[in-house]
Write the structure tokens for this entry.
Amino acid sequence: MTLTAPPSVSTAYRLDGVTRTYRQRDREVRALDGVDLEIAAGDFVTIQGPTGGGKSTLLQMLGALDRPSSGTVTLGDLDIARASSSELNRIRAAEIGFVFQGFNLIPTLTAAENVDMGLEPLGLPRPERLRRIAEALVRVGLADRHDHRPGELSGGQQQRVAIARAIAKEPRVLLADEPTGNLDEAMRDEILDVLEALNGEGLTLIVVTHDSAVARRARRRLRLAKGVVTDITAG
Amino acid sequence: MYGTYLRRELAGRKKQTVIVAVGLAIAIALVIIVNALSAGVRDAQTQALSTVYGVGTDLTVTGAQTQPGEGGGPRFDFGADDGTSSDGTTTLSQSRLMTDMLRGTLDASTVQTVTDLDGVSAATGALSLTNTTFSGQLPDRSAQSGTDMGPGGGMGEPPVGGPGGDGGSAFGIDSFTVLGVDPAASVGPLSSVTVTDGRALAASDTGTDVAVVDATYAASADLSVGSTIDVGGTAMQVVGIVASASADADTAANVYLPLDVAQTLAGVGDVVSTVYVQASGADAIDAVQSEISAALPDATVSSQSQLASTVSGSLSSASTMISNLGTWLSVVVLLVALSLAVLFTISGVARRTREFGTLKAIGWSNGRIVRQVAGESLAQGLIGGAAGLILGLGGILLINVISPTVSVAASTPTGPGMQGGPGGGMGGFDQAAAQATDIVLSAPVTPVVILAAVGIAVLGGVLGGAFGGWRAARLSPAAALRSVA
């Protein structure tokens, strides 16, 4: 059964029979097992589930970081499973924003420079890059901290820099892997406010989380266990 | 952004940057110093050889070696009426001019034979001789021959006269080296000397009794321009004093005569001891050597590199040390430094797995990441190169300021014995001639050395960058992120 998006909106992602297997110490691990899924453009989707259930694998598949062992993953018109490496690079550079649990900022660079790292592959002219950096930092409320390095920022501020880096490229989709996992409640709410605001402006938001508080803010909630996806929005 | 990221990463990983740069710097400095010292040793060898063989001599041709004792040593014959007598003492003095007893001579036509060969630019012959002077005083036997025998046939009065007045004798032997040279030659031993007083031998000196004297010998023998020196029993007028181009070195012989005069005085006929050969170019030397060997199978043909092996003394030790210890030390340190550069870059990539995974996740291509890693590695190499260049040039400066002096003894295949007299009985002089001198060892800086330093730095950077970049490019973004999740 395909978990479909509402019929009135366009589709951001479509997954058909996606299976992903790994070999781990002579044992085959089936991280995703025939996943059929549609995600609508502009939706706010959370993916929950137990550790080792396949959440991060699914997110990497959606982020064009990995290819399925079988099945298709379509972003817009592009089949990620069959795209060339350079096409995947282009998609990651221009259409997908990534936010990680550990922020993954480069500690030697300032906030503005970290945001700039996300723009580097786009080859934009310098004035355009500066405009986007400034705009992204304003949107996450860190305009006054642009010259601070990660070590000089709180966890919440670091995650906001990571979000600024993801949105500066003006992506179609923002993928977040446990974005509030390392933050206290106040900071978590701060980040969720930012993400909700971005989603409100039309950005498709897909968040992997263990946190029910995060999931409650989503319009659509999925659960992934043993490589199988179920929609638990109604529950 | 590329430059900012590169600069920040190098500054952020100071320990790694410093270790790699210091390793490369030490290696590069060692290579520079060893290279410069090698060049200095080569210069010193050339300088030592030029005092013996002259400037521009590529090959020497000498006669075959002979067994010691063949031909005998110098022999002095005195007749009953020889010498001058006064106060019951007879003073005797006789000079003999001899060729090297351990090596045969070559017919003078050899010079023309060699000159006519292909690839020979110039050739000249020289005759190496030793002038030995036997002088002494003994009691005047003629005065004693009329002494009456005592009664009973016993001995009469004990002999009187002689240097002590008690009937004893005193003898001295002095020798100096003589080189008969073609006054018109452009190559050969005199080509490297400097005239300090008077003039050099000229073509017009052929057949005349004139001599040019080495400055050191002139000082010890109290000779000057205008004075005379007894060579083989003939008084030669000193027309010039010459010195080695090096302030500390002596020239190849003590006294220089026109070749024909030397041949006549020595009574050896139209022969030479050594033919000095200049090839038309460095690339022709081997061919010329082969040609001469073929044309003169009994002669010994030596090249500059073979002559260099005759250089002994502490210069030889320095040369051996530099070529052995110095070279191996440079190679080992260089390998360690390059390995360090590669290993640190690879381990740096391993430590930055999440960083590179993140960069790939946000759209960085493999090529962009490889360029980043390679750039950082190259920058480390260049920092090490600059430091190594400064360290190496500092070391060279220090060597040149200290100016270590090395002793050099360049032996001459046909060289006559050193001044100072015979080394044994009259039957066998020690003719293992050597031109002993002290030479200041310098370490010249050449563009090749600078290029080598920059090349090593770039090589270190490129090797580190290539391996590190290869590792970074192989990282799958998903695996990179998974490994640190």
Remarks:
- The radius of gyration of chain B is 35 Å.
- The first strand of chain B starts at residue 59 and ends at 62.
